[in-house]
Design brief:
- The protein is of the alpha/beta class.
- It contains 15 helices and 13 strands.
- The strands form two sheets. The chain has a seven-stranded parallel sheet, sandwiched between helices. It has a six-stranded parallel sheet with strand order 10-9-8-11-12-13, with helices on both faces.
- Strand 8, helix 8 and strand 9 form a beta-alpha-beta unit.
- Helix 3 packs across helix 4.
- The longest helix is centred in the last third of the chain and has 18 residues.
- It is elongated, with a radius of gyration of 21 Å.
- It starts with 14 loop residues before the first strand and ends with a helix.
Length: 367
C-alpha cells in the first residue's frame, strides 16, 4: 500500500558521516547504495569513509556524486587516527557504521566528539558477536543506537542483553524494475543461487544437491551461480570433478544489476549457514521466483514455508533435493509461490517503506 512520506528530519541541518568497512559485493553495500540515493534525493549532506579501494560499489556511488574518503590502512590504531582526523575536518553531526566490525570506530569517535552514532547488525546477531573476537562488546555497546535488518537479530540481542541496547529495525529493501512486467522463459528449468562465493553461503552444498537432481533424470535443468568471491575457482573445480554436471552449471560472475538475469530464472536456492535478511532472496522474490532456502536467521521473515517457497535444513541434502524436485515437477506451484513472493516484496519491502523507516530512525536518534 502506498502512503505519503511523513519526515520531520531536517535535511538541511544535518551532515552524516558513514563508515563502511568495504564497498565490495554484498548486502550491506547494496543497501547503502539505496541509502545514499535516498539522501541525495532528499538533499541530505553526507560523506563516506571506507577501508578499501576499487571495489564493486565504488563506481556506482561515485556516479551518484558521493564523496568517498579512503582509510586503507590495516592498523586499527591508524584507522582510528585517520577517522578522527576526517571527522574533525568535515564536522558531521551524525555518525553511521554500516558493518558490525566498524561499529567500534564510529562509537569511539562519537564519544570523543560528543556526536550521536549509529551501529549496524547485518547478520543474525549471534554470528556477528562470535566473529568479532575481543572487540565484540565494543562493536555492540559503543554506539548510541544499533540498527538491525531482521527481527531475528533483534530478538536474539534483546534476549541476551535485555534493557541494555537501543535497537531499531531497518529491513532491507528491494527495488522494483520494469523487467518484472516481462518475465522471460526458456525451454530449460533454470535454478539460480546468488551471493558472495564464500564459505557461509554453502554453494558447495547446492552443487552436490544439483548433481543428485541430474542423477534423478532432470536433464532439462540448469544451474547458474551468480557472484564473485574467494571460493570461485574452488567451486569451479568441484563442478569439474563431478562428470554428470558437465555442461549443466554456469558461473556468471557478479552482476551489478541482477534483475534482468533473474527474470530468466525459474527457481532460486539459498543455502547459507547463517543470514540476516538476505538481499538475494528478496531480489529473487520480487522477480517472481519460488525460493528454497535454509531455515536460519531472518530468512523465515521472507520465506513463508509452503506459501512462497520451502524452508530446509541445509545439512539434509536429500530433503533439499526432494523440495527442488517438487518444484521442478509443478510449474503451477512455481507460479503460485512466485506470485505470492513478489506480492509480499511489493507490499512490505518497497523503497518508500525504506525511506520512511530510515528517516524515522534519524528522527529518533536526533531527539
Amino acid at each position: 500500500m502506498e502512503y505519503p512520506l511523513k519526515i520531520k528530519f531536517s535535511e538541511s541541518n544535518n551532515y552524516i558521516c558513514f563508515v563502511l568497512g568495504t564497498l565490495g559485493q554484498g548486502g550491506a553495500e547494496r543497501q547503502f547504495f539505496y541509502i545514499a540515493r535516498t539522501l541525495i534525493n532528499r538533499q541530505v549532506r553526507f560523506f563516506v569513509i571506507t577501508f578499501s579501494r576499487n571495489e564493486f560499489w565504488e563506481r556506482s556511488l561515485k556516479d551518484l556524486g558521493v564523496n568517498i574518503e579512503y582509510v586503507d590502512v590495516h592498523s586499527r590504531l591508524l584507522r582510528v587516527v585517520s577517522i578522527l582526523r576526517l571527522i574533525q575536518k568535515y564536522k558531521p553531526n551524525l555518525l553511521y557504521s554500516t558493518h558490525f566490525f566498524t561499529n567500534a570506530y564510529v562509537g569511539l569517535a562519537g564519544r570523543l566528539f560528543g556526536i550521536k552514532s549509529i551501529g549496524s547488525i547485518r547478520g543474525n546477531g549471534e554470528h556477528d558477536l562470535k566473529n568479532s573476537g575481543i572487540f565484540r562488546f565494543l562493536n555492540l555497546f559503543s554506539t548510541s543506537f544499533i540498527v538491525a535488518n531482521s527481527k531475528n537479530a533483534i530478538n536474539y540481542l534483546t534476549m541476551m542483553f535485555p534493557s541494555k541496547l537501543q535497537i531499531e529495525l531497518l529491513p532491507n529493501v528491494v527495488e522494483k524494475t520494469p523487467f518484472f512486467l516481462s518475465k522471460q522463459r526458456s525451454e530449460n528449468v533454470n535454478l539460480v543461487m546468488l551471493g558472495r562465493l564464500a564459505v557461509p553461503k554453502r554453494f558447495d552444498i547446492l552443487i552436490n544437491v544439483f548433481a543428485e537432481i541430474i542423477n534423478r533424470g532432470y536433464t532439462n535443468t540448469r544451474l547458474f551461480i551468480v557472484g564473485d568471491g574467494v571460493l570461485g575457482e574452488g567451486l569451479k573445480i568441484l563442478v569439474g570433478n563431478i562428470p554428470s554436471l558437465a555442461g549443466y552449471v554456469t558461473f556468471t560472475g557478479a552482476l551489478i544489476d541482477p534483475f534482468p538475469f533473474l527474470c530468466t530464472m525459474d527457481i532460486m536456492v539459498h543455502l547459507s549457514d547463517h543470514e540476516g535478511l538476505p538481499n538475494a532472496i528478496m531480489e529473487g522474490m520480487i522477480c517472481g521466483l519460488p525460493i528454497i532456502a535454509s531455515n536460519v536467521g531472518g530468512i523465515p521473515e521472507l520465506v513463508d514455508d509452503g506459501k512462497n517457497g520451502f524452508l530446509v535444513n541445509n545439512q539434509d541434502q536429500d530433503s533439499i533435493a526432494d523440495k527442488i524436485e517438487q518444484a521442478l515437477r509443478s510449474p503451477s506451484l512455481r507460479q503460485k509461490f512466485g506470485e505470492d513472493g513478489s506480492r509480499k516484496m511489493k507490499q512490505g519491502y518497497s523503497l518508500q517503506h525504506f525511506e520512511q523507516n530510515l528517516f524515522e530512525i534519524f528522527e529518533r536518534v536526533g531527539s
